[in-house]
Write a structure and sequence with these properties.
The protein is built from 12 helices and 9 strands. It has helices at residues 10-21, 33-41, 66-74, 96-109, 122-126, 138-151, 163-192, 197-206, 212-222, 233-249, 255-269, 281-287, and strands at residues 2-6, 25-29, 45-46, 58-61, 87-90, 112-115, 118-119, 130-134, 152-157. The strands form 2 sheets. A 6-stranded parallel beta sheet has the order 3-2-1-4-5-6, with helices on both faces. A 3-stranded mixed beta sheet has the order 7-8-9. Helix 7 (163-192) packs across helix 9 and helix 10 (233-249) packs antiparallel against helix 11.
Length: 293
């Protein structure tokens, strides 16, 4: 299949490589040329402009936020260049409201739209082991199913309206941020009482919380190991804000999301914005006088 891929950050590069490994022909574009040039050396075709990548059977975009998708895809006229029958697969975490707007715009342009945000970090993306949260019209999902299977270990169908997948992704990221904050506070409590937080982490991951979130982020918090950033703290704040907006739009309060937002702002204010989003734990550790060692 001819596939366009726009947005070759830490996640996008691994996803694009797995599409090539599955035998698909890729045309890639990135704002900074380096990643596109690297994939060109590996066999991809490099597009001169983002709109050129839409001359394909399917196009993936892995861009950072609503504004990036709006500028690159909508304002750049990319949908006007789309091949007949093309499906646009949006893998980034965007707002539920903007996803609804994309539903309308794509329908008017006659371009298929599938929302497929992913769960996983860059190493997981490189290994093709992402969990893909997918929503869209059955015909569109069916067309891109082999592509989604090439980038993930499992595709989770979530309905025919694409925005539902983005709601699910915001709910997942809100829950994950909550787990990070909970661990930070629990470890600070343990340490203040003289209990080794590593021992508490072993209890967590061996009993009540034997889950990837605790297994991945628990050691990072205990060891204060917040660099390198696989997912920047500033992006975590963006997602928490999107969750709050999604809740407000339907009258659902998210009180703990407000706490998380303030803690993310605290961490950024202390210079941690470029670190991994698990560095939000630093705010809880500072409040307990359990800062960096």
């Amino acid at each position: 299949m001819d596939v366009g891929f726009i947005g070759l950050g830490h996640m996008g590069q691994g996803m694009a490589r797995n599409l090539m490994r599955a035998g698909h022909r890729l045309k890639v574009w990135n704002r900074s040329p380096g990643p596109a040039e690297a994939l060109e050396r590996e066999g991809a075709q490099r597009a001169g402009a983002a709109a050129e990548a839409f001359d394909a059977d399917a196009v993936f975009t892995m861009l950072s936020a609503d504004d990036a998708v709006r500028q690159v895809v909508l304002e750049g006229g990319a949908l006007d260049r789309a091949r007949q029958g093309a499906v646009h697969v949006v893998c980034a975490t965007i707002s539920a409201g903007f996803s609804r707007t994309l539903e309308e715009v794509h329908a008017a342009a006659g371009v298929g739209y599938v929302a497929a945000p992913v769960l996983g970090r860059p190493d997981v993306a490189e290994a093709g082991q992402l969990n893909v949260l997918a929503a869209g019209a059955p015909a569109h999902l069916g067309k891109v199913a082999p592509l989604l299977e090439a980038i993930g270990k499992r595709v989770w169908p979530l309905g025919e309206e694409p925005h539902l997948a983005h709601v699910a992704k915001l709910a997942c990221n809100f829950s994950l941020a909550s787990a990070i904050e909970t661990m930070a506070e629990a470890f600070a409590l343990a340490e203040a009482h003289g209990l080794d937080p590593k021992a508490l982490l072993e209890v967590f991951t061996g009993t009540l919380f034997a889950a990837p979130a605790y297994q991945t982020y628990g050691p990072m918090i205990v060891e204060r190991r917040f660099e390198p950033a696989n997912f920047k703290l500033t992006l975590g704040l963006k997602d928490v804000r999107l969750a709050l907006d999604a809740g407000e739009s339907v009258g659902v309060p998210l009180p703990f999301a407000s706490v998380l937002r303030d803690n993310f702002v605290d961490a950024i204010g202390h210079g941690d914005g470029g670190k991994d989003w698990s560095a939000v734990a630093a705010a809880a550790l500072r409040r307990a006088a359990r800062g960096a060692r």
